[in-house]
Design brief:
heterodimer; A: mainly alpha; two-stranded antiparallel sheet; B: mainly alpha; MetI-like fold; 77% helix; transmembrane helix (chain B)
Amino acid sequence: MGVSIDRVFAKVALGAALFVLFILGALFIVLYKESSLSIQAFGVWKFITSQVWNPPLEKFGGAPAIFGTLVSTVIAIAIAVPVAIGIAIFLTEIAPHFLRTPVGVAIELLAAIPSIIYGMWGLFYFAPFMRDKVQPIIHATLGKLPVVGSFFSGYTPGIGLLTASVVLSIMILPFTAAIARDSFKMVPDILKESAYALGATKWDVMKDVVIPYAKLGVIGGIILSLGRALGETMAVTFVMGNQPVIPSSILEPATSITVTLANEFTEADTDLYLSSLFYLALILFVMSFFVIVVGKFFFLKKVER
Amino acid sequence: MDAFQKRKLVNGIVLVLSTLAAVFGIMWLFWILGTLIYKGFFALSIEVFIGDPPSPGDETGGLKHAIVGQLLIVLTATVIGIPLGVLAGTYLSEYGRNSKLANFIRDMSDVMMSVPSIVIGTFIYALLVKPVGHFMGFAGSLSLAIMMIPIVLRTTDDMLRMVPPELREAAYALGATKFKVIKDVVYRSAITGIVTGVILAVARIGGETAPLLFTSFNNNFFTLDMTQPMASLTVTMYDYAMSPYKYWQELAWAAAIILTVGVLGANILGRLIAHYGFKK
């Protein structure tokens, strides 16, 4: 009797573990199957490069959504990473000891706030702030530059690519800062102390000891944040504008894969429309899969060893 | 200026810059939290908790349907996700250990943890909602459960592996079977860690909106029927915030603060259990 419970439990546990593989495989297969109609109609390259997203005419191209996803992610990372590293330096090297734990815990708790809160705040407070205060300044300065000026001008209702990118960067900031801080903390004190003993300043220690030592962990963390930003939905859905075009200026409304899915999935009235949305979901899945695999296995695995 | 002064100057500049970065980052977060507390606090009332859903243009009504829906959806997700996650973690720690299969499952589970939540929503839509023909609360629970499994798996695996092998060996020496060792020795010594992991996983999925958008969808009526579309705090927040009605937008802020208090409360509870549980 005891033996049979033993065997059953072992089988059940193995089954549960294999279930993880099953789900991941099923995700890929189901998304591929659902998008096959659209893949047949538009192909791969044509779908990725076509800018036409016109449901009434049944013409679907993924370029605007893919463009929005990539550009908003890149801008968000460009803003979040320097600030996050600054926070990590502050927390590990500058802040007085009695501040480190509370500020550190506060940042971790902020990472737990639901992303929809960031989105709502973005819609009601940050978008009007961008429209009334920030964008006129950008128009008057960057917008006047030759050649690149057109990226910073145009019709600017407050919601748009830049606003969404900034909200996204705030959303991933606590996450990125926490990873950077943990990587910095892993540097053995003895290494830092030796450098201080040789007369190094705090910045010398950061630059020549801490950052080289923690580099892989920080890069891995940045890539994980990138994966998070790619798939983030609610923080950007409110403030992106859901315009299926590639905007000529980063101040203008745009769309992204997640924004398109959130807004249009329940409204898709034809098979080809729905299938094209699944196609976008598949592309997002594949993109984030690669980002995660690179970040986790190429960088963070080396840190563990 | 000699080299030493120059180094000191650069050092000073960098320290000021990183302090400013910290202030800059924390300022945003305070702005968001301040808004949430200010707007949410004034939107709260007894009516919010017990009132029926408002009609367009109404000035009364509450979130009872969404609060109950949220609890039901998350509870069902927990009931599905936790046994699977704990069992899978048990396999990795107690049976697989460092076998190739176990390591592969660990890696894939980490990958699954980072799959965009909206993609999981589309997956369940194709699997469950489309064949059945309508949205349902249970589908929402299922997509949240899929998000929970890798988190619970990871903490269970980590916590069980921290149990000293001597404890297991002692039990085996007394003639216990493997199942008995796991049930009475391993689980018992790792229970604090597992509970912490479970609570943190609930906190993590409790605030998710994207996977519910096309699974449980929304329902402007009170329902306990998991086979029907079901309102949740998050999706209701999304719909109300986007609506043109002032009162609905206020309800969205009320939902926001209820949700945040719930999610942060669970998070802090998990941390406290971990902190005090491990001290002993």
